[in-house]
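Quick log. Single chain, no ligands specified.
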Amino acid sequence: MSPALHRAAATIPGVRLVRGVEDPAGREGVAVTRTIGRQSERLILDPKSHTFPGERELDTKGQVTGASAVLTRAVVDKAGERP
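-> predicted structure:
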């Protein structure tokens, strides 16, 4: 995701840009955050490569209720093929 897209996402009502957050694997990034009801979702982006390394879901007390991290990426020649 490009820096311009980060800024554009932050202009969407209810969406905030939060710097200095960590993904579940401990890598620092920038989060595009949106709160709906009692849940807050943070899509964490690497500020240098603009890739998506992970996400966190938080309750209203800031406790993590869900998380995922992308640990490896690979390119294959066709669908269903394993790297």
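The chain has a mean pLDDT of 88.
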